[in-house]
Design a protein that fits this description.
Layout: H1 20-34, H2 41-48, H3 52-59, H4 62-85, H5 93-109, H6 118-124, H7 131-152, H8 161-181, H9 186-207
Helix pairs in contact: 1-2, 1-4, 4-5, 4-7, 5-8, 5-9, 6-7, 7-8, 8-9
């Protein structure tokens, strides 16, 4: 994920040559791995190949860069979650929720990215982050809950149940990220998902 150093970021005429998307990916992974507080500007400079001046001119201050990275993360995995949950629109809510969890398990198993979830990590640190960053994390979690609720609405649940189940599934999904950060095995994470899906399947059968 690391880019070449600053000498490769500009051409002889001084024109920016670096790839913004690659730089954002590198910064995102650095924040994701170490967290906001433990990521310094020097760390970001090393990860992106840009000096401090270039970081500021391209992305603004550390908070602004973190917000860009958080948005990038939310869009990348949010699109995958939305595609998975589209199965709910065809009347298959259980398959949709299973596919939703598979996105998380696949991300956790990806050797090219850190364990855990940048949104969950941000949410847990919200009290010590800027209001703008905390609000963005809350917004991302809320969007995930709304997507899940929409998928569950096709199950013809009693009023309010879709929201309650969506909230529960979000909680389980975030717990997968936390458990992966503390060394839970793939088998253990899969067991968490399997138990959650079994309970949800039973609940849906008994309420429809």
């Amino acid at each position: 994920m690391e880019l070449s150093r600053e000498r490769g970021a500009y051409g002889m005429a001084g024109k920016k040559q670096f790839d913004v998307d690659i730089a954002l990916d590198a910064a995102m992974v650095r924040f994701w791995r170490a967290g906001y507080a433990d990521t310094s500007l020097d760390d970001l400079s090393m990860a992106t190949g840009l000096n401090r001046s270039s970081l500021y001119s391209s992305f603004g201050d550390k908070d602004s860069l973190y917000l860009r990275c958080l948005d990038r993360y939310a869009v990348r995995y949010g699109d995958q979650y939305e595609q998975a949950l589209s199965l709910g629109a065809s009347g298959e809510p259980l398959r949709a929720i299973q596919a939703f969890f598979e996105v998380t398990l696949h991300r956790i198993a990806d050797p090219d990215v850190p364990d855990g979830c940048l949104v969950a990590q941000t949410a847990m640190s919200a009290p010590v982050l800027s209001p703008a960053i905390a609000a963005r994390a809350i917004e991302a979690v809320g969007l995930q809950r709304r997507r899940l609720r929409t998928a569950l609405n096709t199950a013809e649940l009693a009023e309010g149940d879709a929201e309650n189940y969506a909230t529960h599934i979000v909680a389980v999904n975030q717990s997968l990220a936390v458990m992966s950060r503390v060394g839970a095995s793939r088998k253990q994470l899969r067991t968490i998902v399997d138990i959650s899906m079994s309970a949800l399947s039973h609940a849906l059968r008994s309420r429809t």
